[in-house]
Specification:
Blueprint (H helix, E strand, L loop, with lengths): L8 E4 L2 E4 L5 E4 L3 E4 L33
Antiparallel strand pairs: 1-4, 2-3
Length: about 70
């Protein structure tokens, strides 16, 4: 699993995800991107909707003070 504070959680596949309502989503890909921003139209799978949009609550790590 790979965590990126500015993007999705990457999980080695295949995966089966059980949603809050009890339904399941299956992906047989070798790497699966799970949405953490909830902007994805394919939630819980990431569709890169997070790109180009900043999260509220501060700057990205390692970007402070850069010009």
């Amino acid at each position: 699993m790979v965590l990126d504070p500015e993007g999705p959680v990457l999980v080695e596949g295949p995966v089966e995800i059980v949603l809050e309502d009890g339904s399941t989503v299956f992906s047989d890909r070798f790497m699966v991107a799970l949405c953490t921003c909830r902007r994805s139209r394919r939630y819980p799978l990431c569709d890169t909707s997070h790109r180009g949009k900043k999260r509220s609550g501060g700057s990205a790590p390692g970007k402070a003070g850069e010009e």
